[in-house]
Structures
1.
Amino acid sequence: MNELKFKQRRKNLVSELREKGISDDTVLNAILGVPRHKFIDTALGERAYEDSALPIEMGQTISQPYTVARQTELLGIRSGEKVLEIGTGSGYQAAILCEMGADVYSVERHPELYERSRELLRALGYRARLKCGDGTLGWSAYAPYDAIVVTAGAPVVPHELTRQLKIGGTLVVPVGDSDKQAMLRITRIDENRYEEDSFSDFKFVPLIGKQGWDG
Ligand code: SAM
């Protein structure tokens, strides 16, 4: 399939996401700009712009476009802000954040996914900083962050991540059991106070680490 066809499919996907309630134009423009088909196996190319999660290496998934759009919308970031992603996976969400002009940091626990995404993002011209390790502990070397997004399901809010937020910063994290998680948006009000909103159910692969399912 040629690039023009993929572009048309991205436009259709954006219309579908709008109908499903995504209204932030910055997010929708980023979805229009990022070639999702490059982040999955070529054998799945035909399905790249379906609104569904798809398998990637190491038994993981590239999230459903609606989920990526919703999490990104909840982050409410502006160009130039510093954003930490936990769970690089395919690298797609990191590319969306770069496309929005964010200064992107991302942590992945599987070395294979970390290596692959690092190469791919570089090849596509996205300047994200990637690290291989346990993202439940954040990435303290570059903290504090304007926003943190967790793209795997946590049993509880990893408190180290809330500590790495700037005052006024936002953490978006799915929290629940292995079947479903509520999407929490936590805003840091001051040194010790946080405000929390909860949004409807999602289903993610597990967040595994010291402040995740293995903790
Ligand atoms: N954001 C990804 C994308 O755009 O493809 C979604 C990836 S998938 C839904 C979640 C990822 O989180 C998996 O790649 C998994 O290995 C990773 N993960 C799980 N626990 C982690 C942890 N403690 N630290 C870093 N990555 C973790």
2.
Amino acid sequence: MKTDLPQSFRRLEYRPPVYTFDQVELDIALDPARTIVKSRIDVLRGKGFVAGTPLVLVGQDLEFVSLRINGDAHRHFELTPETLSIHSLPNEGKDPFVLEIISICVPEKNTTLMGLYVSNGNFFTQCEAEGFRKITYFLDRPDVMARYRVTLQAREAQCPVLLSNGNLLKTEKLPNGWHSATWEDPFPKPSYLFALVAGKLECIEETITTSSGAKKLLQIWVEPHDLKKTRHAMDSLIASIHWDEKRFGLELDLERFMIVAVSDFNMGAMENKGLNVFNTKFVLAQPETATDADFANIESVVAHEYFHNWTGNRVTCQDWFQLSLKEGLTVFRDQEFSADQMGSESGRAVKRIEDVRLLRQMQFPEDAGPMAHPIRPDEYQEINNFYTVTVYEKGSEVVRMYQTLLGREGFRKGMDLYFKRHDGQAVTCDDFLAAMADANHRDLTQFKNWYSQAGTPRVKVQEHYDATKKQYQLTLRQSCAPSPGQPDKKPFHIPLKIRLITSGNEQVEKLLELTEPEQSWTFDNISERPVLSINRDFSAPIQLEFDQSEADLLALFSGDDDPFSRWEAGQKLAMQMILGNRLPDAKLIETYRNLLMDPQLDPAFKELALTLPAETYLYEQCKSVDPQQIFTARRAFRKEIAKQLQLEWAALYQQNQTPGPFKPDAFSAGKRALKNLALSMLLEADPKTWAPMAVNQYQTADNMTDRYAALSALVIHGAKEANECLADFFNRFANDALVIDKWFALQSSRPPVEGLELTLSDVKRLREHPAFKLNNPNRARSVIHAFCANNPASFHQPDGSGYAFWVESVLALDAINPQVAARLARALDRWRLFAEPYQSKMKAALEQVAACQTLSPDVREVIGKALGN
Ligand code: TRP
Ligand code: ZN
């Protein structure tokens, strides 16, 4: 029986470092079985210096070889599996000294994909958050910022390319077929931003001139066969560089900026200084192999990592509790960039709706569950578990609220002051807030509650119209349910954009600031009872409690001038009817019809307006979830829309063709999205009649968006032609790993279809497929996560078979890669929300995992919190 409690780290226990590092020299001889790392570090007193304190470095899975101080062998040290403590420092540590350490690591055995590892025969590193300690003994914390000079050595035949951060100083031939390259990064950085890449890679490159007139070299490095898929990433990088100059006055600060693609990667991408490392999924694209969504994701991830160069790298985090300082801000920046790239106002709105949909589908459940945490957490066991939708997406919403409150100009002033004060420093979320407040002479004290309190605030809306006084009164009450460790909440500072809509159209949009638990506003000279449009553009990440009549919702859905609120009214109508087990009534169908046939509306908006709220979002509206009931009600609702509007869908399918050579722009992508929704609706209405049209689209498509959409419609609706097309798809793209991931994911995420076997049987077969690899995260996710997290109606079976599969998968993955396993472990977070028999079976599954003696700290934390320990 394991009795020791998991170790927790607490924000308030932060202490500045006793020692700090100035110059770091690394000499790394790369060998998959035995990589020798020599470090030479200039050690100085840190902010928290106390004479006589030992220097405690961290190291993980390292073989210690030797230690010197000021050139002499040093014996006064102690090794534990996680630390190297060095005593008897020169003059009690008061004088600067030179530390030299030699250690060895084994990249080919490293399946965690943290630290130094091998992927397809090439070397890569991933150091955020705490991976550098798997490369060498170090002060592996973000508030220790040092300048690095790195020499890489390798066999030239195995590793012709040797990359690290910064600028290339020199390359050398060495004896026995070895060679070396020396890189220098002029900017001080924390260890988590260190990177090296070595192997058989090739690049495309471009030279650009930035705002100050400097020439910069941009490179995208990939395996040679992927070179033809790099153009879009390069274009996205160039667009990002220009955008950051224009919108924030921020320029690229290095002579060279590199992106490298790797197929084994735990997350999306990593912003290492001057050497961003990317999951191939977010670099490689061609119309034949990547969908419109892939193209858009690449653009936003390239931008995100590039933007980190200022928000994250030049100004970094004091400690990992401040993660949202860089992540929330950088997500906000990439969202704004992508919105601007859409090229039109309606395009911006489409991007906003997509971002909000993701937030509500993923982050609202997290914020109501056992892993709920403020965007700046106060406690964690394993920091890797806190790269969450809360820190990223809600973090971005919090940054967006500054802009809403201060205006774009005010926000820019705050950013300017933030960089003026903190360039080159490791700082906190409080520092960011202070810069925003000081630059705008605003008191933002109450706004801090967004950083310290978890949970989605609820705002209850009450309205009253007095026809004789021509007066409208609005009362708002805010509350927030308890979160783990936070029984009572203080009121938030909530910016709410509203507009009173009347037939005369005389009222303009206003910004209300809700700061009290309850607040009222009175509006005079309102000629008739208005329809309230509230939380326009999703100005705050809240849940509204508002019994707005269906007539008012229909009016908003038909014509609210704020596209987000218009979309939202439609979502609310659909949600209420689905949860009430109703079918769309004649009025709603008529509104859908008018919207679909409106020539003024953007096709992308129509597609979003006709896409129903996700099952996981519907779950959050229930007291006790019956997943099968929700699935059935939602499907019936959709089928009714499909059938009632069959003629319209057929017309839209024809009208939204995009003939001629493939064009990736947002408008064409929107047309494809609407056309493919129409195709899916037609198969929903009548698979026998329309399947041949899908087969035809599948066969004749010149791009992946259309080919995949057709295949997906056939699979999802259980058409008899599906299997033949699936087989064709596999053979056609057998050599393209990212497309094969799609092939796996499509089958694993197929919802239940009458007359077909349960998806779980397919998933179990897919797991035995020769192309399945559990240790490749993209492949594992395309089968296992796709089923457990993206296919709720198949996963939540009353016999618990889905949960049994989850138990097996979490344990199998945990032995290979704890980070990937811990993500999967989150799939049962919301077990308490479910009705029987689901709830008991989920709990039993969690207990089964908890009983395993060898769980990683990552999975242990997720499971422990789910069970309430
Ligand atoms: N900082 C990275 C980003 O914003 C994400 C990241 C954190 C990451 N930890 C990682 C990526 C571990 C890969 C592996 O995008
Ligand atoms: Zn990031």
